[in-house]
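Whether sequence alone determines local backbone shape is best considered at the level of individual chains. Part of our work consisted of pairing the sequence of a single chain with a tokenised description of its backbone. This step matters because it turns folding into a mapping between discrete strings. For completeness, the protein is quoted in full, as a sequence line and a line of structure tokens:

_____
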Amino acid sequence: MKVLHVEMGRYLYGGARQVAYLLDGLAQYPGEHVLACAQGAEIAGAIRNPAVKVCPLKFKGDLDLGFIPRLRQLIRLEKPDLLHIHSRRGDMLGAWAGWLENRPMIHSRRVDNPPGRFDLRRKFPLFRTIVTISEGIRQVLLQAGVPAEKVRCIPSAVDTELYRPECDKASFLAEFGLRGGSPVLATVAQLIPRKGHTVLFDALPAVLARHPDVQVLIFGQGPLQEELQRSVRERGLDATVRFAGFRSDLPRIMPCFDILVHPAWMEGLGVSLLEAAACGVPIVACRAGGIPEAVRDGVNGYLVEPGDSRGLAEALLKLLDKPDRGRSYGAEGRSLVLQHYSIARMVRDNDRTYREILDLSGGAKPPHPQNRA
């Protein structure tokens, strides 16, 4: 069995990191695996499995039609039995290349927004299987009319040896210039609208009224950075909120958070939530997408309705008022991740999916999507 994996994200964000985990873990299973990635992509240097052949391709974006012949050429060269299209970037282009080269394909879907008419009638029919990273996303696809037999949930995974509840708090406080003994809240997310940062900012006055020593770190980068920084200034939160940028050393930093806050109103699953849980950090997040699978309300954190700043403040205060509760929730979170979100389980289920598809398909080409309307 030979699988060509297509991941065109340039940065090692959640989805690309999952692909790296998968390719490294597949070393334990028979088969060949090739990675097609964008030139200069960070994932190329993240693969530790020496058996994986990494093939950088020129990729100028979702409208780069020239990517289709470039990927077709690679398919002809490598002759894979199956394509796994991971990235939302270039997924349609990759699917057309695979279809034109008569290869069965699967697609990983990591977003929880309902698919549009084009996806349902033109893109999804090209794939044998659509793998969702959460049950929440699977349900969205089923409600949109995607056949149940075509959709399979394989949850994202966390490296629980890397993300552990071990914290050098003194070094952490010194590095970020924080006061000792004060609770530290943190967000870890791209600075984009759907992550809901302003909901947290709106909740902070009520939190500070009872816990004026609270400190907040905003980790991540994105197009809203200047707007969010201005929002903090306008609310008079400069002394409380700090923007810490993108960090590649989160396994060292994350265990030092007292609470992870994730007010996103749209989320496939939220790998940062699983990572925080693995580090023993309690979580306050919104009841959206696949988040309730990572955050069990009253077990390893609290869930509030999207956009509810008052509810968010109340949930944060429940943990801040009773630190022992936070520690208990943190322990439950790590147990949850160990049981349901291990890399070994994710790799096993993907490998099983590949073999089932190849056994069933016999290499037959999917029907043209126009005939599936």
The domain at 2-156+342-372 is CATH 3.40.50.2000 (Rossmann fold). Residues 343-361 form the longest helix (19 residues). The two ends are 32 Å apart (CA to CA). DSSP finds 14 helices and 13 strands in the chain.
